[in-house]
Amino acid sequence: MNNETAVLRLHKWKRKIWFLSFALFILIASMGRIQIDTNFDFSWLAVFHSTINLITFFVLVYAYIMIRQKKIEKHRKAIYFAIGLSCTFLLSYLLYHMTVPEQKYCGTGTIRIVYLVILSSHILLSAVLLPFVMFTFARAYVGLYEMHKKMARWILPLWMYVAISGPVVYLMLSQCKR
Length: 178
Prior knowledge:
The protein has 178 residues and is mainly α. It has helices at residues 3-29, 45-68, 72-99, 110-141, 145-173. Helix content is 79%, strand content 0%.
């Protein structure tokens, strides 16, 4: 595929990516207002989310190592797996926050400030990062590898931070009783 065709294919992805990102942002922002009463306890999903985030972090580390070693197919498979994990996380996260009451952090003083900084950066980066992860993926998918590489250099470390800060927030919050 030539570069011009790849750019046209990427352009078709742009609207879909922005639409999906906007729709997910609105859905996530409205989660606090949407509560679904079920007879099933979904509180166990918090551990599931933390585990998925941790696995995602290690898959991203593996993907980075593979691309540094020029093992492109292994890198590609790892990224597909990381995206699959992230999609699973997102669907589960939505279900969790629509069915389980919010838990407040119980720490005080300096540790509370540390928690809030980690939580705030995690939430902000995850919201902002979503379309950029999709654009980075789309660039490789359509064959614009140089553009992909330039974007991935700053997206991958941010995605890794979001993936590892999730379990950190969970561990800090798990000290608080419901």
